[in-house]
């Protein structure tokens, strides 16, 4: 059974919301593919949204949020994986027009936030090469820029395969891409696995890795400054 995954996000400087977007049980038999509930901390109440996406989300991955928006991957439709965007202020959904991993299965993609930008991490099919793309925003368009290419063959084999999980979609074990956690001041990248263990530091200049933290149940969590004082 998929695990319910809520997005806890900052809508404005003083406003936080919980967003729960999930696939409707009747989605394949009716026009309502998804359901959405929002918890407003100021009103201290849940409410349903009437206008929801007409794409089922890939509910084996948690949503990510930045700059007043929340993002989800969709299930694959006509050979494409799309990205759904939810605006926390207007409480409306839309699709990103395109993404560099649209032809990949969502099992091989991770969404993450780096430097307050939406990023997409994609493992090339049948390889140990992983690409990280950043969404650049301007007044007229949204453009994906490749910011890193990582060769996981130089990483410790015991860590690089720790993202191996059983996919209910493909009915076989797949190796999930590494998930970037943060970019350090010296341009090194912190990496983990969605279902793996530990935290490593990757140096793109030397293409080398160093283990920072090794624990079976390590999970990264988002941080919100002065959360209680604003509610």
TrEMBL record:
Residues 14-228 form the F-box associated beta-propeller type domain. InterPro entries: F-box-assoc_dom_typ1, F-box-assoc_interact_dom, Gal_Oxase/kelch_b-propeller, Kelch-typ_b-propeller, SCF_F-box_component. This is F-box protein At1g12855. It comes from Camelina sativa.
